[in-house]
Amino acid sequence: MARIVIYYCLLLLVVVIAFRRGDRETRLAALICLAASVLSAAVMQDNDRLESGIALVDLAVLASFVAIALRSERFWPLWVSGLQLTTSISHLLFMLQPTLLDLAYHAAMRFWSYPILLILVIAALRTHRYTPAVQQSA
């Protein structure tokens, strides 16, 4: 339970930092992380070994991050998309190999969210370095 509280506190901190210091892409990515966390908690089923609801949420998050990466001039969305792809692949691997340990599957689902949040904080704090010169002179 404490781990969940710590995660949500960290997530809210990232959202606040993204909205104070980040650009539109960083704010959008932070909101996607917040929405995905809330949706994942809502669709989680304790009796289902394969978290199909969470898998759908993770695929939607992957599609959102890839869309941001395709439009962005910055590099961080590629990293976030790659980490989310790793999370999404864990669902596929569990479907292909149901004997995969539950502990490994659930750890793979959760682990990459922390580096994604760290990347978002760094991206938000470094946004001012990547503002186009046209906007700075205006």
Describe this structure as you would to a colleague.
It is a single chain. With 138 residues, the chain is mainly alpha-helical. Helix content is 79%, strand content 0%. Helix 4 packs antiparallel against helix 5. The longest helix is centred in the middle third of the chain and has 21 residues, at 76-96. It is globular and about 50 Å long. The termini are far apart. The relative contact order is 0.15.
Spell out the key features of this protein.
138 residues; mainly alpha; 7 helices
What's the gist of this structure?
The protein is mainly α. The protein is built from 7 helices and no strands. It has one domain.
Q: Report Rg.
A: 16 Å
Q: Which ranges are low-confidence, i.e. pLDDT below 50, for 5 or more consecutive residues? A: none
- Count of extended strands: 0
**What structural class do helix, strand and pairing data support?**
mainly alpha
Kindly give the count of domains.
1
The string of secondary-structure elements, in order, is HHHHHHH
In which range does the helix fraction lie? over 70%
Major β-sheet, in short?
Answer: none
